[in-house]
Amino acid sequence: MTLERTLASALKDALQALYQITIEPDEKLIQPTRKEFEGDRTIVVFPYVKLARKAPDMVGKEIGEHIHQQLDFITGFNVVKGYLNISIDDAFWCDHLAAHHDDSRYGITEERQEAPVLIEYSSPNTNKPLHLGHVRNNLLGLAVSRIVSACGHKVVQVNLVNDRGIHICKSMVAWLRYGNGETPENSGIKGDHLVGNYYVAFDKHYKEEQQQLIAQGLTPEEAEQQAPIMLEAREMLRQWEAEDPTVRALWQQMNGWVYEGFDQTYNRLGIHFDKVYHESETYLLGKSLVEEGLQKGVFYKHEDGSVRVNLEAEGLDEKVLLRKDGTSVYITQDIGTAQLRYEEFHPQKMIYVVGNEQNYHFDVLKLVLGKKLGLPFGDSIYHLSYGMVELPNGKMKSREGTVVDADDLMDAMYEEAKRSTEELGKFQFSPEEADKLYEMVGLGALKYFILKVDPAKNMLFNPEESIDFNGNTGPFIQYTHARIRSLLRKADEQQLGWREALPAGMKLNDEERILIKMLYQYPDTVLAAGENLSPALIANYIYDLAKQFNHFYQETPVMKETDEAKRHLRLQIANMTALAIRNGMQLLGIDVPERM
Q1: Angle between helices 132-150 and 564-587 (to 10 degrees)
Q2: Measuring CA to CA, which residue among 4, 25, 2 is closest to residue 14?
Q3: How far is residue 508's CA from residue 94's CA, in Å, rounded to a whole number?
Q4: Which end of the chain has less neighbouring CB within 10 Å, N or C?
Q5: Angle CA 107–109–115, to nearest 5
Q6: Shared-domain flag, residues 41 and 187
Q7: What is the DSSP string of 35-72?
Q8: 76 and 191 both lie in a single domain
């Protein structure tokens, strides 16, 4: 039983005994005591004041006395304006250290036998490589998947590849017009980058054709609709949906190039999926479900021939579900994909990791699936909405070729890590070791900098700031881990036997107590991150832990401590800190080195 649960149980007994109040206390009202006050845990007594019919300080004092008598690990208490601060005996913290200092699965809840949580992320288009925006999506999806799994849920990681549609046809048309048979093999260009080049080329020529038509007297709106290259793309989409064999063959060839490129990027980021869906395989089911809704009267056919849903009564507006030419839109395939996933996995929840520009889309999707179509999984959909990520020089536009590709970004982070690590100059590595370390530090810097920001917030990614070994960064945490591991190797080399049980009745100094109390909070931090779907909670906890350990190491002798029991205690604290750092960083998808 956790400390909070034990205190909540004692509080329940106190309320019944003192005031004849039968209530289940909220464990969230039992919190770590703020640094400026004496104590280890604080119970907020305000919710019980009115029921007890006494002043807050009196209620706190009476509850404190009752709990103090009940629990032998409480050494004292004080009350500050309705906040009951409780002090915990050192033996409690030492027992926790003894139980977990060498626990490799510390903070991980065993998987429960229940319906899985399905998490969709990445969802790229096959007309361009992954870019910085995709990086945040992928890192969030991976971290949330690992955190939810660590909270005891079975997790199914899925990807939905948007492999069809007008944007795909744009790259195909441009390649037919201007490609001259170029392939990844004969050009030496990574497949997703090659196809992305033709997506940019389409936009360039499309703008040129629009200007020519405007010069001939057309309005800008007319030029957009009548540009020959756009008409070709629309015709190709119709041919694709009609399963024209020539169009389908080109589509398969160019998508194949992209998939090979995606796989290389995913492998480098440490990402894999349990199931990959393709829009080309799900949109027809979506169209059939839309047709069913049309027959039932929950959707309607607009005068222009498109199929729509009216959501004005729900505070939204009309949404097109099928275009007037019968082709599908994004939400069409999302309807079909959700149905497929329900049939295959029967998940308790379907989490979609998608940027906040799609908030409206998911509001509509939930209403269409649940309220309109009456499907049993409509209410299980949750949109994990995240903010945009920008570079210091502003926004990115893939169609104009101004994006920062994920591959280029990772290469740049590798080089930055190489420069920064070599400046430290504290260890000589073989070329193979150095290469692995630079990759680990570079990717650690990238991942941590993105994940330490609350998902809902927009963020500015600064590569130079992310690699700083002294700030709130991945490299600082990685270096702290390596420092601890070096310390423990020295202890093992000297055969100090520090893993042995500590003598009873040990007293802790302030630095020791603070660090053990922080370590005690790690499992609760993981659970909170899972509940809030926020890797930032873990990232910032780990930073605070690493910072506190460095302060502890500066203020408290470890290897030079002459008292053997004290030395063993501090080495156990160090080991448990390293475990918490490693486990927490792994939940974020970040590796930590044994030495730097």
Answers
A1: 120
A2: 25
A3: 8
A4: N
A5: 145
A6: no
A7: TTSS-SEEEE-HHHHHHHTS-HHHHHHHHHHHHHHH-T
A8: no
pTM: 0.92
Domain count, the chain: 3
Token representation of residue 587: 């939940």
CA of 431: how far to CAs of 419, 428, 435, 436, 437, in Å? 14, 10, 6, 9, 10
* Residue with the two structure tokens 């009609």: 242
Residues 7, 27: Cα–Cα separation, whole Å: 8
**Residue 31: which CATH number?**
3.30.1360.70
Write down the pLDDT at residue 403: 67
Q: What is the CATH number of the domain that holds 573?
A: 1.10.730.10
Closest C-alpha to 311, from 369, 380, 382, 354:
369
169 and 60 both lie in a single domain: no
Strand 83-88: give its sheet, edge to edge: 30-32, 41-44, 83-88, 74-80
Weakly modelled stretches of the chain, pLDDT under 70: 393-403, 426-427
Residue 515 lies in a domain: yes
CA torsion, ordered 357, 359, 365, 368, to nearest 10 deg: -120
Round to whole Å and give the CA distance between 234 and 226. 11
Please state, as a whole number, how many other Cβ atoms lie within 10 Å of the Cβ of residue 108. Answer: 17
What is d(CA 80, CA 255) in angstroms, rounded to the nearest whole number? 65
- Residue 174 lies inside a defined structural domain of this protein: yes
Assess contact for 469 and 476: CB atoms under 8 A: yes
H/E stretch holding 158 = strand 155-161
Q: So what's the pLDDT on residue 391?
A: 75
Q: How far apart are CA 485 and CA 594, in angstroms?
A: 6
As beta bridge partners, residue 92 has none
Same domain, 84 and 168: no
| Two structure tokens written together for 547 | 């910072």
Report helix, strand or coil for 105: coil
Q: How far apart are CA 194 and CA 183, in angstroms?
A: 8
Q: Computed from CA positions of residues 342, 347, 349, 354, in that sequence, does the dihedral angle turn out positive or negative?
A: negative
Closest Cα partner for 447 from 406, 484, 418, 419?
406
Q: Are residues 209 and 60 in the same domain?
A: no
Q: Which of 42, 77, 40 is nearest to 61 (CA)?
A: 77
Taking the C-alpha atoms of residue 29 and residue 62, their distance in angstroms, rounded to an integer, is 17
Residue closest to 577 by CA, chosen among 537, 546, 538:
546
Domain containing 234 equals: 164-273
